[in-house]
Recover the amino acids of this structure.
């Protein structure tokens, strides 16, 4: 089917429709094993290379302006051994939060003025990137949301970050200042360094 070959490895029903592939054909191809359905309305070619982070890829396609954050970002950056029950994403407060049931997703609403701080990308599948906060922003967000996500998680991620080669505590403190959590982060950084 020429329309399917013209599509990227991961695509939405809308993109498939634009390429001339009817939704009935999509579901037939899925049922025949030529396509995998990653999330409602998000498909991946079965012969495409396996994604490293399939759930992040699915959520990213459904919510392209969202950013992987908090525990999900900590898992990607190897700052925790905890496996998140839900994909955690952030959206700007000026945007309507997406509603994604599968994969299970938790949405955080972050201030628009600081939303892009620490923004980077990670390859979720060969040639397919998703937006994610860098390790420094992830550590600061976990400290900022420690009341909701748990202080042990935040302190463990901070400790793991500071003990790794190439850690940039100055960058963590600069982000903490911009995100109004400098005091708590500074105290935690000092405690870890003193250990």
């Amino acid at each position: 089917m020429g329309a399917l070959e013209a599509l990227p490895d991961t695509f939405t029903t809308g993109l498939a429709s634009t390429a001339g592939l009817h939704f009935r054909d999509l579901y037939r191809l899925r049922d025949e094993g030529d396509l995998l359905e990653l999330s409602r309305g998000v498909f991946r070619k079965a012969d495409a290379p396996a994604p490293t982070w399939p759930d992040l890829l699915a959520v990213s396609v459904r919510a392209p302006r969202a950013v992987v954050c908090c525990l999900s970002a900590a898992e990607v950056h190897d700052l925790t051994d905890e496996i998140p029950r839900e994909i955690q994403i952030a959206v700007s407060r000026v945007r309507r939060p997406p509603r994604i049931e599968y994969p299970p997703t938790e949405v955080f609403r972050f201030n628009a003025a600081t939303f892009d701080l620490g923004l980077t990308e990670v390859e979720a599948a060969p040639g397919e990137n998703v937006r994610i906060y860098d390790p420094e922003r992830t550590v600061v967000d976990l400290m900022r949301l420690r009341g909701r996500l748990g202080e042990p998680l935040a302190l463990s991620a901070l400790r793991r970050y500071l003990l790794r080669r190439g850690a940039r505590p100055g960058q963590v403190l600069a982000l903490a200042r911009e995100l109004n959590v400098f005091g708590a982060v500074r105290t935690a950084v000092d405690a870890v360094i003193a250990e």
In short: The radius of gyration is 19 Å. The chain has two domains: 2-45, 54-194.
